[in-house]
Amino acid sequence: MNAVSPTLAPPPSTLRHAAYVLRENPLTAVAAAGASLLCLVAVFSPWLTPYDPVASDVSVALQPPSAAHWAGTDQLGRDVLSRIVAATRLDLAIALSAVGLSFALGAVIGGVSGYAGGRLDRVVGRLVDVLMAFPLFVLAMALVAALGNRVENIVIATAIINLPFYIRFARAEVNVRRDAGYVEAARAGGEGHLAVVLRFLLPNVLPAMAVQISLNLGWAILNAAGLSFIGLGVRAPTPEWGILVAEGARFITTGKWWLVAFPGLALMLAVLCFNLLGDGLRDILDPRMRT
Q1: Which of 6, 40, 93, 98 is the most exposed place for a label (fewest CB within 10 A)?
Q2: CB-CB contact of 138 with 146 (8 Å)
Q3: Which of 163, 104, 156, 103 minimizes the C-alpha distance to 129?
Q4: Which residues of 132-162 are buried (b: 16+ CB within 10 A; e: fewer)?
């Protein structure tokens, strides 16, 4: 009688595995819900703001939170909640654009240098070391001051200061994997070197980089808010979390706590959600976790 060989169950689908990860990690589920809510607020902010975020009405200036103005009003009578909601779109747009740009460039540059090795790898490594020798926020300040405090320049400066993280990470991961069996098989099958990096190596590095992507989103939001707080970022009266905190800080000693508390809370929750989301993204995207 022939023995029946056991068959391995197929790995779960990405959606089923994501649901499992969220069930087993309550903090990840909360962070994912918070990040999703922020994205929805950013997309639908023009329809969610109860008042015009830039329209002033001095007759209701510096009113505390009430039924008419849930987060109070500022020194010009503008609704604070409306300005926070409107600022969500701008801050997330800056963060996503900057992180997406730095991730794409950093992954390719790091992947190519790690795969090539030799002199190219050493040159890229030294350039990254030079960039990381500067305090990154000070470097962002210098870049924005030199280029001008426009939104696109804030995105470029934020992308540049995040670039070394992705170059170093991709360079190290690809350097470890460049002699793996599947890479040798791809080369033997006639794949060019660039195709090997883009089609075989970088997709295997992505799960490990998911944590860095999520963390960098939080850092990018803080960087944009910090630049605006010191006057080098987005210009008033455009709603932006850093500007709202800077404007509210002038009234802390007078008891107008809502001017800084609510924008600061929104900024803190956004950064916290993206920081907590990183580990969950790694578990969802890494095929080795699907057992």
Answers
A1: 6
A2: no
A3: 163
A4: beeebbebbbebbeeeebebebbbbbbbbbb
Q: How is residue 146 written in tokens?
A: 């030199």
- The beta-strand segments (E) located in 13-127 are none
Q: Which pair of tokens denotes residue 177?
A: 């994997």
Tens of pLDDT, residues 10-64: 455 667 766 766 777 788 888 888 989 999 999 999 899 989 998 888 888 889 9
What is the per-residue DSSP string for 190-219? T--HHHIIIIIIHHHHHHHHHHHHHHHHHH
Structure tokens at 25: 């990690």
| Nearest Cα to Cα of residue 39 among 100, 88, 95 | 88
Distance CA 202, CA 112 (A): 10
For residue 230, give both structure tokens. 């010191």
Q: Tokens standing for 118?
A: 């030799």
Calculated CA dihedral for residues 111, 271, 289, 195, nearest 10 degrees: -20
**Whole-number pLDDT of residue 21:** 66
